[in-house]
Amino acid sequence: MCYKLSALRLLIFVLLPVPLLGQFTYRISQDIAVEKDSNALINPWAGGFNSPQVNKMDLNGDSAEDIVIFDKTTATLRTFLWLDGEYRHAPEYETLFPSGLSTFVSLRDFDCDGKKDLFTFGQIGIFVYKQIAVSGKPFGWSKMLFPNLFTGGTSEVLLTKGFTTQINLLPGTNDLPDFTDMDGDGDLDVLNMRFVTPSSAEYHKNFSMENYGVCNLDSLARMTSTWGGFEECQCGLIAFGPQTCADLGGRSLHTGGKSTLSLDTDGDGDRDLLFTEESCLVLYHMENSGTTELPVMGNLSQLAGLIMPHYPSAYREDVDNDGTKDLLVGPNTSTRTHTFTDFANSLWYYRNTGTDALPAFVALQPNFLQDEMIDLGDQTTPWLEDLDHDGDLDLLVGVYLNPGESRASITLYENTGNHSQPSFRWLTNDFGLVLYTYFYNIRPQMADVNADGTLDLAFTASAGGLTRFFIILAPPGGQPEFNGENLTPLEIPLSLNDNARLHDIDHDGRLDILVGKSDGSLFYYHATGDYPTPNFELLSNAYLGLGASTSRQYLSTDIGDLDGDGKEDLVAGDQAGTIMIIPDFRSPNPEAIDSVVFDTYSGIYLHRNLGGSARPAIANLLGVNRPSIVVGNRQGGLRLLHNDNSVPMSNPPKVSLSPNPVASGSNLTVLSDRSVTIEIYNTMGSRVGQAQVIPGGQSTQFPLDGIAAGLYVARFTASTGTTALRFVVY
Asked: Over the stretch 670-688, which tens digit does the pLDDT of each residue have?
């Protein structure tokens, strides 16, 4: 969709002509290889996980069940096809699921038609979507309405017969219910913790098979509010009947979410229980010494080897496709609540080496699927730059916290390919030795801040409750490294979730700063004075009309020529995980495009959530006329977007210089369609000054200090060719 940049979105598609819209359209891709520790990642750009909930269903109709991950922190889905013995990220299926999914997603076949249906949390209960056939698509969904036998009407949430009348089956707002056939009669029953005083479990029996001989959800009835005869007092303290919490010297604490998974763990034919709650770091097992009809829980123990800061919840699916269901455990959290929460290892895989009737779960790995993608924890911020001057772009990634640590750093992936066929290899998790600063919440970028021809490291970071913007100057011809003394702050006010970007907005030769604020506004700070200690003046608290907004928060920007027209465009990500593009943002009345990601099955472009807290970086990775966008996100991974209307760049490089003529001692603004090295020659053919690398796709300042008045030739060299432009210094 397109809209004017104002406080309100004008949802008028025709604001931008179709040719202009087509210049800013992208497809999600996995086609750039990434390697770590000599292993080629299968799904490097899948985007990471934080709080994964695991389900399986057949996505592509090949009769093999695939994996569907719902991430609770961002309310997004990731779909993976089972192909040739491994899981491949297939994002085209993700948009086929219902919108507005929240809290939990459980895929279960409630009507015994062989197709998985979908259960999710609604504000007043549980929404259920039946899987249906849709022409031209692998599957679709129809939201269920349930007959209310007492009112004669219908309900959009799942109903159960209470002790006196029909009521909403209402789990807690952060609970994970268990939808399973508890009694083995073929239809789905429901086990959940009580909504009011949620210290005991409710069992809702499904009588559809008994009443009608078919599977359905119209005949649920609450059989008991004390299933298993236990009362949770607090994490790790369970009163087993006839004991109460008071008998154990405590009381029942009712706050926080609860997670239940019933299964027979000891082969005696009844249902035992895996249970945890929101304040727990471990997953508990309760043994049923009773029967299926009269369960008696006791013998509390912990799942061996598992310590997971915050709410470890269990899922039972056959992920290795050997015919037996395995156990997966992940933090069922909505946000980071502990410093040492390890979001890079947040999907523990216990392989079932036994049978479904008598399982034997063996811990196999703490990062199922995550080990095959870039997943650095959470809140990733990418930046791409030719760090080793070999003509291709290397990848830097900042994070909120390193996995399992209380500090953050910058990870470097070296490009071992070339300018048009990139391939990344993990090199270090401490580029610039930033790890020794003991900062967290690091968001990096690079720029020649002091105009000496060498790229310097700039980043925002937090420590001691403060967030600041820092610079580490690189030595001439070298790379920036922290040495304990060379950390220079830029004096602008920042809060924890602000995103700052250096760029010469007004082409005066100094790097200004755009700050995306937590309230959705975009601040423009104009630089005066010289780096590394300039002054900044706030010129606008709603730059480009982007003021405070309830629907657009935590803006993160990057600037570059996205459509190859020689003019810089601005891309902005937000808290919702979406991006928008403002073509030629310096023009008098810029307009934005936000439906830019192609959807395979609808054939249209969508405003798509790429994993929450989208932080885009423009990068010409393929040697084409329209660069790609790499997007960092809240889930700790990266998404890769390629422009779907790009063509290989023509030779030689396309470069523009301004102003021309230019005053002696000032700066030339250089914009090249690819990374080039600039050299200046006088009319005698002698080189003047030092060569400098100019990044592709973004305006760069080239200092003319010491260059006298006269006519000069600027020579630009890339791996694909050379071009030259004349300019006058007065």
From this structure: 998 888 889 999 999 999 9
